[in-house]
Amino acid sequence: MPTVIINVDGINAGDSSGFGVASSDIVGIVSDGDTGTTITNQSVDLTLEFSLQDISDVAVLSGATLNSIKCLGTAASSGKSAILFGLSILNSDGDALVSDNEFSTSSASQTDFEGTSLDISSFSTDQFNGLQLKYRTLEETQVVASRIRAQVDYTAAAVTSTPYLKLGLGRYKISKGRLKVV
User: Fold this and answer.
1) Beta strands at 3-14 and 143-155: parallel, antiparallel or unpaired
2) Which of 21, 78, 101, 113 stands 20 to 30 A from 36 (CA)?
């Protein structure tokens, strides 16, 4: 089944001043798709709660059936030690729908991490639009994060064609075969 990336588009809660960049720049950095732009926690054990793009912001989801969602992160160690960070999917009330996915690496290269899938096949549009991603740096490690996003698995809307032929002006010429008009 096809998948699509859903980017974060705002910060709902958390300590956005502790990442070494202006609070207003964080969302752009973690959603630009560039592993060369990063945020790094300057204080230990920080948390950010991000809002996600609405269904109407993602054209391929128009009329589609949503199957599942999972959080994705791309991060590296600052080179001082191994890192540990968590990503969770929250509902609009801030309750965890997928408990903390914890990820660790000692690599200084940006590495992709993938969380547990959440079945959203019974979600309404409002429930989907209320989903949030929670990002946490853990155990006093310094995480160099470049991407925080979600991936949605969906079934595309069925495409139907018009089952009849209409002639507005002009004429049809049939060189072979036959035409049955009912």
Assistant:
1) antiparallel
2) 101
